[in-house]
Design goal:
89% helix; elongated
Length: 83
């Protein structure tokens, strides 16, 4: 199953691969922002609000990552079925 997934990802269309890669980079940057907020919480401020903001932004980055990956798989499948 993993080999099938790796084979599918390697055979993505160039545009789909580019969009997925940029989306994953965006997700990584959101994750880094959440990490900095949580480091600020640990180092300087112990307000619960800052902790919850950091955790919610981290959840958002995971959601973006999975959404971009699933969208790339779905669009590639649709495009190959239409051809």
């Amino acid at each position: 199953m993993i080999e099938n997934l790796v084979h599918t990802i390697k055979n993505f269309d160039f545009k789909i691969k580019k969009i997925m890669k940029n989306g994953l980079y965006f997700s990584l940057s959101v994750s880094i922002l959440a990490t900095f907020i949580l480091i600020y919480y640990i180092s300087f401020s112990h307000y619960n609000f800052i902790y919850h903001v950091g955790i919610e932004i981290m959840k958002l980055s995971f959601t973006f990552c999975s959404a971009f990956f699933a969208s790339a798989l779905a669009i590639d499948k649709i495009k190959k079925d239409l051809e």
